[in-house]
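Below is a concrete protein record.
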Amino acid sequence: MKSPKKILIIAPYAFGYTAHILKALQSYETVAAEILYLDQPAFQYKNTLHKAQNFFSKLIFGKNLKKTFVTDRIKTSMRELGQQDEIFIIRPDMLNDEVLLYIKGFTKKFIAYYYDSTRRFPRKVDIISLFDKVYSYDRLDVSTYKLYFLTNYIFEESNHAAVDYQFFNISTNDYRFPLIENLAKYLKEKDWTYNIQVYNGSDMPAEYVKIITQQKSIQEVSQLIQKAKIIVEIQRTEQVGLSFRIFEALGHHKKLITTNKDIVNYDFYHPQNILVVDENNIEIPEDFVTSPYVEIEETILSKYKIENWVKPIFEL
């Protein structure tokens, strides 16, 4: 009997989004899959003296103990895991070239997936040549650097009928905050119900949105999505690829309002389900809010589902 294909995923934990790739691979009897997280376990100072040691190490020698910890942990893990048939790495730009080449020595097939654009993380351009194949969810990067196009994926499905509020959005506080506040103001003036939350490490003033000081888990976000009729997504200006929020809307059969203009080019796009708005001049027609969701054909949705998403990448 042929030995199962050994596949190693190396990725950030990313709230648990990447764990779904492992789960999908483990459902195949012909695969022996494992995952190595880039950011877990996280570096922790042993005491105040250890923290001071790192300060002077960076100041005098230009050496960061946090980065050394990650490098040593990954190299140790690679030696323990041994040779792999394929290594699939997400956010390889978080590692230096020396570590990437060390990892590459453990496989004959080294694959990367960029689920952020090179405009946001320029180092991604410099390391393309280190890989046998590089996938990207960003159409502009794909055409510019001759990469392979690959969207994000649907990792969870539901058809929750009860609705507690019409609009839902959750995001981290960044330059998009004024846009999100303006959106919430617009919804309030329209007398539409909404649950819009912005995560910040500490409390901060906000007139129309709810500030949360603890990040929500992927499971908690899923529950909030299920209670909404319409999901709202404010796209980062430097990215063209579709965020996970869009695939969560698809999986939960929810309408979507987005600032991502490229979404109209996808086969699941339906004008009754997806509304593209100008972030600086938001206009939401009443009939978009009141009309029902149009179910998308299973033949279209199935290829975005994680269990099928892994097939072409790993030749399953």
Summary: The chain is about 35% helix and 20% strand. The chain has two domains: 5-150, 165-301.
